[in-house]
Amino acid sequence: MHFETEAIRTQTERSQYLEHSTPLYLTSSYIFEDAEDMRASFSEEKDRNIYSRFTNPNTSEFVEKIAKMEGAEAGYAFATGMSAVFSTLAALLNSGDHVISARAVFGSTHSLFTKYFPKWNISHSYFNVTDVEDIESLIKPETKIIFAETPTNPGVEVLDLEFLGKVAKKHNLILIIDNCFATPWLQNPIKFGTQLVIHSATKMIDGQGRVLGGVTVGDPELIREIYLFSRNTGPALSPFNAWVLSKSLETLPVRLDKHCENAEKVAEFLEGEPNAENVRYPFLKSHPQYEIAKKQMKKGGNIVSFEIKGGIEAGRKFLDAIELCSRSANLGDTRSIVTHPASTTHSRLSEEDRLEAGITPGLVRVSVGLEHVEDVINDLKQALAAVK
Ligand SMILES: *Cc1c(COP(=O)(O)O)cnc(C)c1O
Q1: 270 — pLDDT class (breaks 50, 70, 90)
Q2: What distance in angstroms lies between residue 141's CA and the mean position of ligand 1's atoms?
Q3: Which of 68, 129, 149, 188 could form a disulfide with 178 if both were Cys (CB 3.0 to 4.6 A apart)?
Q4: Range of the domain at 261
């Protein structure tokens, strides 16, 4: 069946009330017929719900949909995108293991690698997204995982999934892709040899700035380890949020198509603005990885970045001059959002680390929403004019 149909018709079994739309299963636990039923359920001879930290009909529906959309066989849903990233890595890594990651990763993922994993003797090496050919030289005997995002946050760089998949296969490494910016509608990393795909569902999957959520899908044996880790450590997605997110998936393709259409127009507008430099949008011909983006993505997504002339002060001025768009740290909302990473989300990094991650002082990230695109463009135009 087609993606759009799966997104709408994948549904938890109906109850005796024959409800049309999936109800909310707000229950922490489930009951058993008798002692034998309970024993068989706990020993996993029976596949059924036991406790909502393990599974729940709403979270299972959400996971099943994402798995179908990504071409995966199994998955597990988490309370946030970061709990998905952390639990996935923590479940699979042992003391002494080594991870190779793109340097341009989400800020909190960077903190996992640099601040927390070293506590458990897990090391990492970073590669620059522009030097992806170097990754083979970083592989050590103790390397277990290659981790990357594409497109990257906030620089909107694109990594070659087919290349990463080949390297991972050749060296028997687990390739994990944070597919948050593309969503399963625009890009399916499993097709290119990725074992595990992670999403922050908080972003475009919810799409309306309401709930937090995360999910990991992919290879069933790896998911089994992640599931066992998670059922004991407790990062489970709440049934209410799962219900909201599963509903959101029904409209993901139509919402995202419109987001992409608007974002492309914003990117084209910015390219014509003299004080907006290095406009980055995967489907702009000027994007350094345009050919790769075309190969692996259906459309360019809703995030556009650019550099404002004048550095950090110009970035701050631009943010102050914005009237319609929101100044917020989120992305992937119906409302367009602008952020200035150097003075906000990435301000705690040293200037050197920021530059290495592609965050220049004047970098501005725009998450293009679903307002009329002319209104968004007019707001950006007047804010750019205010900086001059
Ligand atoms: C937001 C984000 C995350 C973290 O997701 P939360 O739901 O906020 O925990 C991880 N990766 C990327 C690329 C993100 O944009």
Answers
A1: very high
A2: 30
A3: 149
A4: 252-387
